[in-house]
Specification:
- About 35% of the residues lie in helices and about 20% in strands.
- It has twelve helices and 15 strands.
- Strands 1, 2, 3, 4, 5, 6, 13, 14 and 15 form a nine-stranded mixed beta sheet that branches. Strands 9-11-7-12 form a four-stranded antiparallel beta sheet, covered by helices on one side. A two-stranded antiparallel ribbon has the order 8-10.
- α3 links the parallel β3 and β4.
- α3 packs across α12, α8 packs antiparallel against α9 and α10 packs across α12.
- The longest helix is centred in the C-terminal third of the chain and has 22 residues.
- It is globular and about 80 Å long.
- It starts with 12 loop residues before the first helix and ends with a helix.
- The protein binds (2S)-amino(hydroxy)ethanoic acid and manganese (II) ion (2 copies).
- The site of (2S)-amino(hydroxy)ethanoic acid has 6 residues, from loops.
């Protein structure tokens, strides 16, 4: 069968993999992954490497007031809005080498391949590194893309504090990546994000590409439980105001609520702080965040209401104070059907096996979808492991998804010559 025009175009998978391994050397973890948390010196070093590569590829880089980086390859039509291709270079404290990084460097690989082939496009193409996608150091997740989409104000974002009490605004200035562009002033024609699945489905189904149709919605509820500090040895059980016990009962309840909402709902706690956190002092305060997610709007609203109400009941029964703050939220997202079909047909054209999939993790694409037609592409990851230094993909998987990204972006940016 004669190949359609451009059908056999492929990116340079070895160059993509080499760039991933080069970036992985910055902010190394202790078990083979990465600890390149947002607005740390390691994050800054990774940004400088990305900027150098963008300069070498002939891109023009702008930085906005949240530190997000936009590297643009010009199109032939000065009035055509850019196609944005992005993700994030920041990682979890015990993160992998690919979460976010794959999408940014695959965007750069698309540019490098266009340069190799001397292809011009009508629309400019802008590779994007969103600041603070992870929300690990400064909650919420997707903070910079949230400001870009008008979800959060710049002041709110600048005031977000890390566990050491440092603010986003101060840290952004300290690392020297406070840009001058107004956040959100840029307009998009379309947005693509290529990402590892971060779950087990594609590998289990033996599919090379995930055609992402939706992203599940999320609530992050931060609870502050107030008990009474007391001696763990000399305080009778009947005299305790035990915030630690309340935390344990709430944890069990959260698990039960999520199990009642099966299939397709998750909830749990990844972070908790006990104060004074001394082994022989009953905690005066326990602060923790419940992370709940589901593709169903009804289930999301129901879980949030039930978990908050039942937590208050648990605390009341123990005489423990309970305050709740929503520190992260987005409703379930439906990606643009036209772009989703473009991804699917690119996978078909390239001969890659694929399946439709809903994203379990949140992504900057969830906010970009508020501004312009957006969609995502997934590649499998080994044993579905992510947010873990053992996160692993194959160079072949990485390249396959980048090929699909290349063709979907090219079709959207319109080849001119
Ligand atoms: O939490 C998330 O889904 C993303 O990794 N920030
Ligand atoms: Mn990510
Ligand atoms: Mn992540």
């Amino acid at each position: 069968m004669v190949a359609a025009p451009g059908e056999n175009l492929r990116v340079n998978g070895d160059r993509l993999w080499d760039s991933l391994m080069e970036m992985a050397k910055i902010g190394p973890g202790i078990a083979g992954g990465n600890n390149r948390q947002t607005l740390t010196d390691a994050d800054s070093e990774g940004r400088h490497l990305f900027k150098r590569w963008c300069d070498e590829a002939g891109l023009t880089t702008g930085v906005d007031q949240m530190g997000t980086m936009f590297a643009t390859r010009p199109g032939t039509d000065p009035d055509a809005l850019p196609i944005y291709v992005g993700s994030h270079l920041d990682t979890q404290p015990t993160g992998g080498k690919y979460d976010g990084v794959l999408g940014v460097l695959a965007g750069l690989e698309v540019i490098r391949t266009l340069n190799d082939l001397g292809i011009q496009t009508k629309h400019p193409i802008t590779v994007t590194n969103w600041s603070n996608e992870e929300g690990a150091r400064f909650a919420p997740a997707m903070l910079a893309s949230g400001v870009f989409a008008g979800i959060h104000t710049l002041d709110y974002a600048y005031g977000r504090k890390d566990p050491d009490g440092k603010t986003y605004g101060d840290e952004l200035k300290r690392i020297g990546w406070l840009g001058d562009e107004e956040v959100g002033a840029r307009k998009m024609h379309a947005y693509f994000e290529y990402h590892i699945e971060q779950g087990p489905i594609l590998e289990a189904q033996n599919r090379q590409i995930g055609v992402v149709t939706h992203c599940q919605g999320l609530w992050w509820l931060e609870f502050t439980l107030t008990g009474r500090e007391a001696h763990t040895g000399s305080t009778p059980m009947t005299m305790r105001v035990n915030a630690g016990l309340a935390f344990g009962r709430i944890l069990e309840m959260v698990q039960a609520v999520a199990m009642e909402e099966q299939p397709g709902a998750v909830a749990g706690v990844g972070q908790a702080f006990f104060s004074p956190n001394s082994r022989n002092v009953l905690p005066g305060k326990v602060v923790f965040t419940v992370d709940m997610r589901t593709p169903s709007q009804d289930k999301l609203d129901r879980m949030r209401a039930k978990i908050e109400a039942e937590a208050r009941t648990i605390c009341e029964a123990l005489g423990v104070g309970c305050s709740v703050e929503a520190v992260g939220h987005f409703d379930p997202v439906t990606f643009d059907p036209t772009l989703v079909e473009r991804v699917r047909s690119a996978a078909d054209k390239l001969g890659y096996s694929h399946m439709d999939i809903i994203s379990g993790a949140g992504h900057d694409a969830c906010w970009a979808a508020r501004l312009a037609p957006s969609t995502m592409i997934f590649c499998p990851c080994v044993n579905g492991v992510s947010h873990n230094e053992a996160e692993e993909i194959s160079s072949e998987w990485a390249a396959n998804g980048c090929d699909v990204l290349f063709h979907a972006v090219l079709e959207t940016a319109e080849i001119v010559g």
